[in-house]
Amino acid sequence: xxxxxxxxxxxxxxxxxxxxxxxxxxxxxxxxxxxxxxxxxxxxxxxxxxxxxxxxxxxxxxxxxxxxxxxxxxxxxxxxxxxxxxxxxxxxxxxxxxxxxxxxxxxxxxxxxxxxxxxxxxxxxxxxxxxxxxxxxxxxxxxxxx
Length: 146
Hints:
Elements (H helix, E strand, L loop, with lengths): L14 H11 L7 H35 L1 E8 L7 E6 L1 H12 L8 E2 L3 E3 L1 E10 L2 E13 L2
Parallel strand pairs: 1-6
Antiparallel strand pairs: 2-4, 3-5, 5-6
């Protein structure tokens, strides 16, 4: 219900509201020791699942930090513009480079990087979890088009 909480949450309401509306409608139950135990067990399972997700993100962050450097080759100009790329390096390019070297899938929306339009070294961060961020170097090399 709006303004009262979500399913499975513990909320205090007026006795008359509970007795006349919430309980007869099947929207709420009294807080018995059995229900409180179920709520605690659900919270413990949710906490365990969150810890597992965070641990997996930390392991991936450690792997990315250990490797430290990923290389992308893009078509670059010739003559005076050897450092200029045709197009730019996108987050999808970074995802593919990481997948190629580590066999790990990343979400391109989680990658934070500058606009890359020239060859060189760049720092890229990936927010794997709200509390875990991996940072690595991206080496962009110019590949001469034929």
